[in-house]
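Appendix B, record 7
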Amino acid sequence: MPTLSYQLYCSRNFPEIEDTLAMLAQTGFTECEGYGGLYGDLARLKNALDGTSMKMTSGHFGLDMVENDTAKALEVVKTLGVSRVYVPHLMPADRPTDAAGWAAFGKRLAEAGKPFNDAGVIFGWHNHDFELADLGGADRPLDLIAQGGDDVMLELDLAWVEKGGQSAVDWIKKYAGKITSVHVKDIAPAGECTDEDGWADVGHGTLDWTAINKALKAANVTHYVAEHDNPSDHARFAARSLATMKTF
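Structure tokens (predicted):
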């Protein structure tokens, strides 16, 4: 059975980290994934994790922090025991506009990851839908990011791949050797869950989890992270999603 984790960004609107981690532990999660907004008070975060026996096995770290405050990022990694670091996003103004630009970005990402690789940490990229844009050739931005270096891994966000007009199953097969984690996220049927930006609890949306899970197993992906970008009730999302993920 894969390791099941929870992206704490889902709970950013439920502000007390101690309460969130207690809820997750009570629900049955034992692992979680961090994000940049949590690392400012590292002592509090560590105490909250220790108090619930939750492990932060992966984390999202902004590109600016990775490149320009590497020592701080490595301190977070060491203090919390993070074993997977993923850069999660680029603002629209910072995104390359052609294949050459994305290829250069892939190499830049590989260079940024070297200190983390040297520390024994998996390093890579977490996608949204903009990395699936058609550049007019065979490669899409996500291809060029993955090709940036042998040590650039992927945390494939399955729902964002589908939002980008692509097949999650096809991309799992395409980069089986590069995928070290996946975001397990679901998309609500058209017109539903509009108050939650059209996302759904895992197993309560439109993604074909039977086919996706088969592909993930064939690709030997063992780290699944539940995510919902805007749940109105994070405890409901956590409970229903974990119940679905346990069937995987």
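Remarks on this record: The CA atoms of residues 131 and 141 lie 5 Å apart. The chain has one domain: 3-245.
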